[in-house]
Amino acid sequence: MLQLVVRRLAAMVPLLFLVSLIVFGLVLLVPGDPAITIAGENATQAQIEATRERLGLNDSLLEQYWRWASHAVQGDLGTSMFSNRSVSGAIAERFPATVSLTAVAIVMALLISVPAAVAAATSRGRWLDRFATVGTSVGVAMPNFWLGLLLATALALNLRLLPATGYVPLDDDPVAWLAHLLLPGFTLGLAAAAELTRQLRSSLIDVFDQDYLRTARAKGLRTTSVIAKHALKNAATPVVTVLGMRISVLLGGTVVVEQIFGIPGLGQLAITAVLQRDLPMVQGVVVVTAVMVMLANLAVDLSYGYLNPKVRAQ
Question: TM segments (predicted)?
């Protein structure tokens, strides 16, 4: 298991390098000149050139990338071109909101998918199974921006059951923190719940046909005990794989959901940075997001050791 962790961490280095190169190149393709935006539309050419020189935009692309990368490996992601704030500080300020939203979405996806998949698998071919199949199709196809607007209008604005916008830090008020994240968390996690339900239902049906499950039933074990102690653990490996793949989708979905519900997270920060062509901020947000996805995938790999003893021995 230790060798697995070391190999995964070592593989992150070239991958991060590749991600930083791609982001650096794509950001440069965004139309517009940040020097003109910062100096103002009425600025003279001399003022624009002075701004370009101050920002280091007159240097070669290789020099600009090396200057940014050499500081990034030390934890310094640069300074915003517009606010003169530290990129690392701005990301650290927005990071808890995005992580909280993603975590709530994952928990809600699991709370929905596990009971739904068990109910569908144990009722294979009957109306409950067909209902779950239709429900997962709707959940996968439903756009999260439409669902978010619908939930905010119905539950927040009309019924006033939950807050429509905003975010409260966990250490300030845990109850308010959860209340502000329930609607956006459900909006973000519904598609993941639908996909996980499909995968877990299929895995459970395969496990139910195994001989050791028949033996457990023949011994007189209750159905709930058979499912909880034997079936779920053995059916969870492909589901964990799908969950790991969904992490990147969930983090990407925060861009839209944070805008709808007014959550000051990395998604809002990224949109603002792109619109302003704030190159250091965009690069910093993308690199931090890439690290989050890699660490999540590492956690998924480590979970295989718990689910499969053969992996634990490697």
Answer: 9-30, 95-119, 131-155, 175-194, 239-261, 281-307
Q: How far is CA 28 from the centre of its chain?
A: 25
pLDDT at residue 314 in the model: 54
- What is the tens place of the pLDDT at every residue in 158-203? 888 889 888 999 988 999 999 999 999 999 999 999 999 998 888 8
Asked if residue 30 lies in contact with residue 274, where contact means CB atoms within 8 angstroms, the answer is yes
Residue 162, Cα to own-chain centre: how many angstroms?
23
Domain boundaries, the chain: 94-312
Look at the domain 94-312 and name its fold.
MetI-like fold (1.10.3720)
**Mind listing the pLDDT tens digit for each residue in 267-314?**
888 888 888 778 788 888 888 888 888 888 888 777 776 666 555 555
Phi, psi of 86 (to 5 degrees): -65, 130
The model carries a pTM of 0.84
Strand partners, 208: none
Distance (Å, rounded) from C-alpha 159 to C-alpha 145?
Answer: 20
DSSP string, 143-198: -HHHHHHHHIIIIIIIS--S-SS----TTT-HHHHHHHHHHHHHHHHHHHHHHHHH
CA 111 to chain centre: 17
> Whose structure tokens read 């502000």?
180
Count, in order, helices (H) and strands (E) of the chain. Answer: 14, 0
